């Protein structure tokens, strides 16, 4: 301030006069004309006139502490020290010979002691927050401009022009901001500018930066888990939040019955999902809680899950005999909760059901019931939901062998020269053994064998098991085909041979034993007749 070049004074650029009404002999001015001084500081003031009288007297009237620092023809200078008055206008006077006065208006300033930007909480996206900047102990506030910046972007600028307070003040500037996702991580600063130009300088003080943290967490988490879970099994519980930001900062706590579970968290876009394995070894109801914390918000979802114990039911299907009454028992030991219903069914329909344990079903065993499949079903009711399991079993009904045309055809015709096997089985439980016998010779069943005419005949098949035995007759026919031409040729040849033999014999016998002629004739006739009978019988058999 005080080291302003003297040159300007002689050019007479800045002249402040007071009370110069009538044309006067001299001019009086103060230098500097608009002094700017820091609170508590000091400055020099020069009362300068155009008075050429070396004896002319001048002075300075002020409440401030002053010290004369020099004088000369037409001027007198003072040093003002410890300027702690916010408003002061020292009055310069000169007598040359009349009295003239000039006033200097001093601007006292104070740079801000501190500029404080108040910290902000973690902000919820979409909500309004006040950015508050305090500028402490600053003057004059009409020269103060408070600027709020987000990064390089100007958010708000406030000039406190209208204020006409001259002492140091605390200034608070508030600006409303609406939190946005992209504000997260940005820095906000407050800048206090004390602009004393043109007579002074520009002071700028900036607050420490405040880093913004924003979050979005609009919806409650959703918990996905079955309503009822079997004990001893591992089930996945899934907790999901959507629309969250910053999604990677979402903190999950999954718990089951008050015990924290180990969760794997994965974020995709603004959806975050946490998964944990849930299991219990004991039946009962447990609370599953998913708590998500993000920013300042904590939200949770709770579900009650019913754990049940359900071993497969037992089905007792005792072996029985045909015609006896058999009772099937269906039970479900170890089920918890014990509110169970049982059902016995077969492939077609429900046979009986009820809550009594064990559940029984009695039937008169028949051959058809052998191998019949029965199912025992148990259904447990847990928290209004039901879960079930089933066990199946086959009934074994013992019965004596039974044979019929279906399993053992009573007439079986085979072709001579082919290979055939006797098919003959018997029903029965246990599986019966079957033997077919003709003339004390057994015919192997199911074993291929060459067919000969000798197989022809009636067989007695006997089936046996522990429950008894059954007989069944089977006739086997063997079909053979001899061509007729051969038969006739053989017949003709046979007759020819006999005739020739007879002729030769006759001639010889006639010559040798003429007397036995009659007997010989009778014998050859008998032989031919017998041949004829044999051949004729074979033909009849063939047809
Ligand atoms: C006061 O002003 C006069 C002329 O205007 C100059 O000669 C003199 O040196 C100044 N005094 C001081 C102390 O600046
Ligand atoms: C001017 O200065 C002289 C010494 O330099 C001093 O004796 C005298 O008192 C001063 N005059 C005024 C009016 O202060
Ligand atoms: C300045 O003035 C204040 C009060 O007016 C006083 O307490 C202080 O001692 C003074 N300082 C000097 C250096 O004169
Ligand atoms: C912000 O400040 C204004 C007045 O200064 C007040 O009415 C409002 O409630 C404040 N808002 C918040 C979010 O604090
Ligand atoms: C300004 O604030 C400071 C600290 O908060 C306090 O000590 C001082 O008295 C305040 N000044 C005024 C003028 O209110
Ligand atoms: C600030 O102070 C200066 C004194 O140097 C004054 O001339 C100016 O009018 C003031 N500016 C504002 C904007 O109040
Ligand atoms: C404010 O800025 C000025 C210079 O621009 C400096 O002298 C002063 O120490 C600063 N005040 C604070 C509180 O930083
Ligand atoms: C998670 O929640 C459970 C029950 O709500 C609590 O007991 C446990 O301390 C929590 N764990 C953490 C790490 O916050
Ligand atoms: C089987 O039970 C029925 C009625 O339940 C009974 O009339 C019948 O005599 C029983 N049969 C046998 C073999 O026990
Ligand atoms: C048992 O379950 C049935 C439905 O399956 C329900 O109607 C009944 O009230 C339950 N009983 C008890 C004691 O829970
Ligand atoms: C078995 O079938 C034959 C004809 O193939 C028939 O003559 C006989 O009567 C049948 N036997 C029975 C018990 O049905």
Automatic annotation (TrEMBL):
<feature type="domain" description="Ig-like">
    <location>
        <begin position="401"/>
        <end position="477"/>
    </location>
</feature>
<keyword id="KW-0325">Glycoprotein</keyword>
<dbReference type="GO" id="GO:0006955">
    <property type="term" value="P:immune response"/>
</dbReference>
<dbReference type="GO" id="GO:0005886">
    <property type="term" value="C:plasma membrane"/>
</dbReference>
<dbReference type="InterPro" id="IPR047012">
    <property type="entry name" value="ICAM_VCAM"/>
</dbReference>
<dbReference type="GO" id="GO:0098609">
    <property type="term" value="P:cell-cell adhesion"/>
</dbReference>
<comment type="similarity">
    <text>Belongs to the immunoglobulin superfamily. ICAM family.</text>
</comment>
<keyword id="KW-1133">Transmembrane helix</keyword>
<dbReference type="InterPro" id="IPR048679">
    <property type="entry name" value="ICAM1_3_5_D2"/>
</dbReference>
<dbReference type="InterPro" id="IPR036179">
    <property type="entry name" value="Ig-like_dom_sf"/>
</dbReference>
<feature type="signal peptide">
    <location>
        <begin position="1"/>
        <end position="19"/>
    </location>
</feature>
<dbReference type="InterPro" id="IPR007110">
    <property type="entry name" value="Ig-like_dom"/>
</dbReference>
<keyword id="KW-1015">Disulfide bond</keyword>
<dbReference type="InterPro" id="IPR003987">
    <property type="entry name" value="ICAM_VCAM_N"/>
</dbReference>
<feature type="domain" description="Ig-like">
    <location>
        <begin position="312"/>
        <end position="396"/>
    </location>
</feature>
<keyword id="KW-0812">Transmembrane</keyword>
<protein>
    <recommendedName>
        <fullName>Ig-like domain-containing protein</fullName>
    </recommendedName>
</protein>
<dbReference type="Pfam" id="PF13895">
    <property type="entry name" value="Ig_2"/>
</dbReference>
<keyword id="KW-0472">Membrane</keyword>
<dbReference type="Pfam" id="PF03921">
    <property type="entry name" value="ICAM_N"/>
</dbReference>
<dbReference type="InterPro" id="IPR013768">
    <property type="entry name" value="ICAM_N"/>
</dbReference>
<dbReference type="InterPro" id="IPR013783">
    <property type="entry name" value="Ig-like_fold"/>
</dbReference>
<dbReference type="Pfam" id="PF21146">
    <property type="entry name" value="ICAM1_3_5_D2"/>
</dbReference>
<dbReference type="GO" id="GO:1901701">
    <property type="term" value="P:cellular response to oxygen-containing compound"/>
</dbReference>
<keyword id="KW-0393">Immunoglobulin domain</keyword>
<keyword id="KW-0130">Cell adhesion</keyword>
<dbReference type="GO" id="GO:0005178">
    <property type="term" value="F:integrin binding"/>
</dbReference>
<feature type="transmembrane region" description="Helical">
    <location>
        <begin position="485"/>
        <end position="509"/>
    </location>
</feature>
<keyword id="KW-0677">Repeat</keyword>
<keyword id="KW-0732">Signal</keyword>
């Amino acid at each position: 301030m005080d080291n302003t070049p003297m040159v300007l004074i002689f050019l007479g650029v800045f002249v402040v006069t007071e009370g110069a009404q009538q044309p006067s002999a001299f001019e009086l001015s103060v230098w500097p004309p608009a002094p700017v001084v820091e609170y508590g500081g000091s400055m020099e003031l020069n009362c300068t006139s155009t008075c050429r009288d070396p004896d002319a007297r001048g002075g300075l009237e002020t409440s401030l502490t002053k010290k004369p620092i020099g004088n000369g023809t037409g001027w007198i200078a003072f040093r003002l020290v410890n300027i702690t008055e916010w408003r002061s206008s020292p009055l310069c006077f000169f007598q040359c010979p009349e009295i003239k006065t000039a006033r200097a208006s001093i601007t006292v300033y104070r740079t801000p002691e501190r500029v404080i930007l108040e910290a902000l909480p973690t902000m919820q996206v979409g909500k309004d927050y006040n950015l508050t900047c305090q500028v402490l102990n600053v003057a004059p506030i009409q020269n103060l401009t408070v600027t709020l910046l987000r990064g390089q972007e100007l958010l708000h600028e406030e000039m406190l022009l209208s204020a006409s307070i001259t002492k140091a003040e605390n200034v608070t500037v508030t600006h409303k901001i609406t939190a946005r996702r992209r504000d997260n991580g940005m820095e906000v600063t407050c800048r206090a500018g004390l602009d004393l130009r043109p007579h002074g300088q520009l002071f700028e003080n900036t607050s420490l930066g405040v880093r913004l943290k924003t979050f979005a967490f609009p919806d409650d988490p959703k918990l996905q888990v079955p309503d009822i879970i079997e004990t001893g099994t591992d089930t996945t519980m899934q907790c999901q939040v959507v629309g969250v930001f910053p999604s990677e900062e979402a903190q999950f706590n999954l718990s089951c019955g008050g015990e924290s579970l180990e969760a794997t968290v994965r974020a995709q876009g603004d959806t975050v999902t946490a998964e944990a394995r849930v299991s219990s070894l004991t039946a009962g109801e447990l609370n599953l809680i998913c708590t998500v914390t993000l920013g300042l918000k904590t939200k949770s979802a709770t579900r009650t899950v019913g754990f049940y114990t359900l071993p497969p039911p037992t089905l007792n299907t005792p072996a029985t005999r045909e015609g006896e009454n058999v009772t099937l028992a269906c039970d479900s030991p170890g089920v918890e909760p014990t509110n169970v219903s049982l059902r016995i069914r077969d492939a077609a329909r429900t046979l009986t059901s009820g809550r009594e344990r064990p559940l029984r079903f009695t039937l008169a065993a028949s051959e058809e019931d052998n191998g019949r499949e029965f199912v025992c079903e148990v259904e447990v009711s847990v928290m209004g939901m039901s879960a079930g399991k089933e066990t199946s079993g086959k009934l074994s009904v013992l019965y004596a062998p039974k044979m019929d045309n279906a399993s053992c055809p009573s007439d079986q015709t085979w072709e001579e020269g082919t290979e055939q096997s006797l098919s003959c089985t018997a029903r029965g439980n246990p599986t019966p053994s079957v033997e077919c016998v003709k003339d004390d010779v057994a015919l192997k069943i199911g074993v291929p064998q060459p067919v000969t005419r000798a197989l022809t005949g009636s067989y007695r098949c006997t089936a046996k098991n522990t429950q008894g035995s059954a007989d069944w007759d089977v006739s086997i026919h063997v079909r053979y085909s001899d061509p007729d031409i051969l038969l006739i040729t053989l017949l003709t040849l046979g007759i020819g041979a006999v005739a020739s033999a007879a002729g030769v014999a006759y001639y010889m016998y006639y010559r040798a034993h003429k007397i036995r002629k009659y007997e010989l004739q009778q014998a050859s006739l008998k032989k031919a007749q017998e041949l004829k009978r044999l051949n004729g019988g074979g033909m009849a058999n063939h047809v």
